[in-house]
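U., I forgot to send this yesterday:
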Amino acid sequence: MTPSSSLVSKLKVQLKLSISRLRMVQQKDTAIAKQQRRQMAHLLELGKEESARIRVENIIRSDITTELLEILELYCELLLARIGLLEPKECDPGLEEPIKSIIYAAPRTDVKELQQARQLLVEKYGKEFALEAIDNSDGKVAERVLKKLKVEPPDPELVNLYLKEIARTYGVDWPKGEKRQGHGSDEDEDSPTGGQVVKNLEEPLTTEELNRATPPRDLGPKSPVSIAPPSPSTDNVNPRIKLPGPPELKPNAKMSGLKKETPSTQAQSDAKGKDDEGSKKVVGGKIPDVDELSRRFAALKR
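Result:
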């Protein structure tokens, strides 16, 4: 017979494979269910209600199976987390429900990895334990697992709820006229007075009153940058905010020497300026005529 430690290690590996496989099957079933829901919406749009009612039962059955696989995945994760409690020969009371639920439900699924994990559990705890789980003679199998595995036609009310939800999701008007009635009720809820206009309780202000009113200080656009003033401290009693800007240029020795002017240099510069102004006046003045030029030449000859 296989030692208990090696059997538990095999079971640990098989539980990990079962968890990954169960997740893949759930994702696949969910994708198929979405396609089927689109087909149901198309049938409702075409008015084929009877065909949609029959086919929607497959969607309900698929959703129930997906929920069952999710429960079995949680049980596998629980056994994997408490793998140390599977070492003893006797089953731990806290693990009896997940183990018997897996033994009971695994043959009713298409997940081979879960069925192999079930065989290891049967080999671990014996045939009598497995028969109790299969027959559920002690009632240890989870009630929700038993409910998901029941084979019975779905309730007509559940079928109607599924069809309404599919129609609402894909924007189909089913049953006919219900969508428009729903819009009307929404409008009534939005207007609490039933569509009647509520009169203003106070008269509006005149233009003169608005002109006399003082606008609040915080009116107008605010700068997106706000600077909190620094708090005074013992090192800096009067703190000031220094904003970034162009650096202040301080004059050096050369610049200060150039700026200093003596009275003589200032007089020379003034005289030079006057000469420049006089030359500008001559150049820019009126051109002398011939008599003026002759008088000038006569003055030069003297």
